[in-house]
Amino acid sequence: MNRNKFLLLLMLVVFTAANSSIAQTTTNETDSTQHYGFDKHKLFAGGSLNLGYGGGTVSTFAIGALPEVGYSLREWLDLGLAFNINYYSGSEYAGDSYYSPIPGYKAVSYGAGIFARLHPLEDYFIQVQPEIDNYSIKATLSGETQKYFHTSTSYLVGIGWGRRIIGESSFFTTLMIDLGNEKNTPYKDAQGNVIPIIRTGFNFYF
Fold first, then answer.
1. How many CA atoms lie less than 13 Å away from 186 in the CB half-sphere?
2. Running DSSP on this structure, what letter comes out for residue 37?
3. Which pLDDT value is given to residue 53?
4. Which of 41, 67, 119, 161 has the fewest CB within 10 Å, making it most exposed?
5. In the chain, what are the domains?
């Protein structure tokens, strides 16, 4: 089974479990009344922003948005959808021509995935987030401009910290890495080395 099929199967399993959990009967020890349905006060939306700049002989700039929407199934479990769109650019300065940049690259990436946050402790959680990303890259090398497009699959896993009040709001900081073996993802460098991912964001409940 290839990674894309595995990702689709995982999405199906997660959302089947979510649908089953939402429809599950809640029984009180002293009251046999059954409760079903969707609680909009457990639905949240928000996300985070990316902004980065690097100087030196290679100048890089990055900006992006990472919106998400999810549902708190339990006090200890959130499930949701995560999206991202990012813009990157870079120029190289060589030798005595520091103030004359050599054209580098411009790239746009966008993607989507699912996430699960498990809250074993009040202020800490474990996050699992498989996602698919697409790249459009325009690079200038040796005076020639080339264009590339490719798709990659990532499997992000990590830990997080934050304050979460179901029905009101939450803020979070996560540290994740990509456990997949694809090199061309937003979370690995040109040599295929894993880049730690740090994100901070806010969510608001409806």
1. 28
2. S
3. 66
4. 41
5. 3-23+41-205 (2.40.160.20)
